[in-house]
Design brief:
heterodimer, A: about 260 residues, mainly alpha, 8 helices, B: about 260 residues
């Protein structure tokens, strides 16, 4: 029982530290001054840096949904439902999740790498010594930048996914384009897009919190920064995938 | 071989060529020096067993969401029974290989990049060369063999967990009939789909390992260099896997 109990205790202690860290950041987010210009700068840099990988992942995913859906619907003779399937899966699930996975891998990990390098080079301590709050100046703008750029990237990613679905169905598999575009919105409503936006804001907060926690508390030189980056990607995907289940249940689970 | 530094398009093309040269040098090194088989078991343990808990949790949540979304999408059409088909088809054919690959890229791939990166900036790779040990055969080959052994197994496990958690949600949260779910889940897929999943897993594994090791092997100095190599390793290998997945699916299922 010894080692299990000890590992459980260290995990619970880490969870408590994350909670205290999140509380400290939330308090700073609610009280002035809030560095709007720095936040916008991080929104811009995160969005531009994550846009190519997000589009490069959601586009082929839309194409795959189209490919597989077409094969199934041809069996039932229901090809006209294809674009409804594409828009439902892309807007509700694939675009939020795959975009957030890539944001965690690109934006979250670079946030952790930057903060970790600042910790290792004692820049965060130097900021604190100069009576400037490092959480407010360095950490919070990065976290809010991630949270705000997630919905933007969701919109870009779902557009790319829908385009990928159209591309495969119409240009590769020679389905009529008119039917595809006509039944594209048969099963989706504006509520689906709002649900995606809410989801991605929550995912962005999760990613930003995990990334800034791992970056701010990095220890042990260059290897420590590498470990912080590694942990950031894995833990933030774990956290937001489990949040995704709860959010999906809340938005779409109550149809019975 | 050193990393080129030019404008974006040139840098990308140069990177592709540099990666190809790296793979060619690796193949040559393995043919000349062989694989150090003693290290393979440890690497497979580190890649497979240590990625397993994370992968299973994530595959489980993907399965639950497949069931929820399938239910939400098919209920207006009166096809609630199709939920089982939807979960098993989407899980077996596409999501299990991709989720397993991206989680291994996120966990084991980043670890490879940061380990090799740290060895590079501490000049341990140069030290290996000085000792007349070929670093490519010694460091990269066991990781490649390990990931080739382990990723197909992880794919099968995540298929199982996805369908199981989809079943749990469909039956216990959405109140569907379990027998109908399982019947539709098993009619939709063929045994060869599992084989295709394994093949996808092996191809993704080879890609993840070579890309991550390439980034780590040519890491720039300092903590930022290691962070950047790790970051780029996971992003590049995930993007390449998803893009490659479309062409593999087109070959396997598109006709």
């Amino acid at each position: 029982m010894g080692p299990i109990r000890r590992s459980l205790e260290t995990r619970l202690a880490a969870l408590g530290r994350v909670g205290a860290f999140a509380g400290a950041l939330a308090w700073r987010a609610c009280t002035p001054p809030l560095f709007g210009r720095a936040i916008l700068g991080h929104v811009w840099s995160t969005s531009t840096r994550c846009l190519p990988p997000v589009v490069a992942v959601t586009l082929p995913f839309g194409m795959v949904v189209s490919l597989q859906g077409l094969e199934i619907f041809r069996v039932f003779g229901a090809e006209r439902l294809l674009s409804s399937l594409v828009s439902v899966t892309v807007l509700r699930e694939l675009a939020p999740v795959m975009a957030s996975v890539l944001i965690a891998a690109q934006g979250g990990s670079s946030c952790a790498a930057e903060l970790g390098a600042m910790r290792i080079k004692e820049e965060l301590d130097a900021t604190a010594v100069m009576a400037v709050d490092p959480l407010r100046v360095h950490v919070l703008p990065r976290l809010l930048g991630l949270a705000l750029s997630c919905p933007l990237l969701y919109v870009a990613g779902s557009s790319a996914g829908l385009f990928g679905g159209w591309f495969t169905a119409v240009l590769v598999k020679n389905e009529p384009s008119g039917i595809f575009l006509q039944s594209l919105w048969a099963l989706t409503t504006p509520l689906d897009i709002w649900a995606g936006v809410v989801k991605t804001v929550v995912f962005g907060l999760c990613i930003g919190l995990v990334a800034s926690y791992h970056g701010t508390f990095a220890t042990g030189g260059a290897a420590g920064v590498g470990r912080a980056v590694n942990d950031t990607v894995v833990h933030s995907v774990l956290v937001f995938i489990s949040a995704n289940y709860l959010l999906t249940s809340a938005f779409f689970g109550a149809t019975t | 071989m050193s990393r080129p530094a030019e404008p974006l398009l040139l840098r990308t093309l140069g990177g592709v060529g540099h990666y190809a040269l790296f793979v060619a040098a690796f193949v040559r090194a393995v043919r000349r020096h062989g694989v150090p088989w003693g290290a393979v078991l440890g690497e497979s343990y580190r890649i497979g067993v240590l990625s397993l808990p994370v992968l299973l949790v994530i595959a489980g949540f993907v399965g639950t969401n497949l069931a929820l979304q399938g239910h939400a999408a098919f209920t207006p059409l009166g096809g609630q029974r199709l939920v089982g088909l939807f979960v098993s088809l989407a899980g077996v054919r596409e999501l299990a290989p991709i989720i397993a690959a991206s989680m291994v890229a996120a966990k084991a791939g980043t670890e490879m990049a940061s380990q090799l990166g740290v060895m590079r900036i501490r000049e341990q790779i140069d030290a290996l060369e000085v000792m007349a040990v070929n670093p490519l055969a010694f460091l990269v080959a066991p990781r490649l063999v390990g990931i080739l052994l382990v990723l197909p197994a992880l794919t099968v496990l995540s298929i199982f967990v996805m369908v199981a958690s989809g079943y749990a949600v469909a039956v216990h949260q959405l109140g569907l009939n379990g027998h109908v779910f399982l019947e539709f889940a098993t009619t939709g897929i063929r045994p060869v789909d599992f084989l295709y999943g394994q093949i996808k897993g092996m191809i993704f594994g080879a890609l993840i390992c070579t890309v991550s090791c390439w980034y780590g092997y040519f890491c720039e100095s300092g903590p930022e260099g290691v962070g950047r190599a790790t970051n780029r390793a996971v992003v590049t290998s995930a993007v390449l896997c998803v893009a490659l997945n479309y062409f593999l699916s087109e070959i396997m299922y598109g006709r």
